[in-house]
Amino acid sequence: MAQKSQDKKTAISRRRKTDTLRQAPGQTAATTAGRRSAGRIASVPLSKIILDRFQPRPVLPSTDGLREDFFSGNADWKKTVTKWIKLAEEDYALAGQVQGLLAMGKSIAELNQIEPASGAWVELSPGDFRMMLSTGERRFWSLALAAVVDKREDPQLEVQEIQPDEMGIERQIVENESAMPLTAIGKARAIAGLILDRLEDLPPELDRNSENPPTDNEYFCSVLDLERLTGSKYMPRGMWEEIGEIMDMERSYMTLHLDLLKLPVEVQHLADSNNVPEKVLREVLKLSPAQWEKAVRLVITEDLSASDIKKLKKGSKGPSPKEVTRAVKAGRRMKAFWKESKAISTDTEIGKIATEFAVGQDKEDLEKAIDKLEKFVDQLRLRVEGME
Q: In this predicted structure, what is the pLDDT of residue 387?
């Protein structure tokens, strides 16, 4: 009997945690069954939108209680964004994230939203229906930031309606990856979320639907203590293989990503919002915990590599800001651009890159950029010719 109980406790579950979601007005079982993913596009005011704090791609930082205040209901989107902008004035890493989101928000406002977010209507209380986003949180915050900067009231987000039972981490992973590949931290959260989604009888403190739900960091980090969750040091049979198929990753690589959840939540956000690679963060974890945040900030500001972090571990200071010149930084970023864009081949996709680059820049800046890029291409051709 004890063994059967244990087997039940660690069995892979196919359920979806949507017990608290109810149908929107006018939806019957028949209309729900017939409308699935091909739902209509609705324009929803930001004030009527709820964000899923447990989705793999975190956007809102934890700095100075920003994330906790918003998700606990102590601050609305406008108050949150106002504080976020102020914090970014004194934080280089936050400033880069805010500027990127602002550019996206202004692009959406000027060129209209090309890809809708997705979400389901949920009933918080009798007659009070809100749109819970499944995907599109970056678009939400980009509009929010642009609205505060431009002094606009309650902008609207284009959302494709789905049904509550379609909400789930697998859908979020697929849609996130199609829009923008998950970062190393995003993948760590995705793997953790898939594991937790498949485990039955989670401890009460991990109940996402309770009156006092865990923070997203507490929820995802709980997978680091598997024995507490399942009573065993080992994953239920077949789970690694199943999750590996979804993530397209080997088991060893997934465990390396899960290790990143050991980083403090503030450091995780820094790494995530600046797309720090897993290979680099793996070396950061080998430093003492007291060095983690400083190391990640150095990676961001000085564009340090994994080998640079290894030097820090050995006691070397690594390259100083003077040694890492602007030209070297620019060259490294061009390598990152090439790596990111290798799979992009169509004129339409290249046009999207050009649009993203042009947003927020005037004609004179763009003409200077074209001139510099042409000189860069000429220099690159000289080096290619030298290889023949």
A: 65
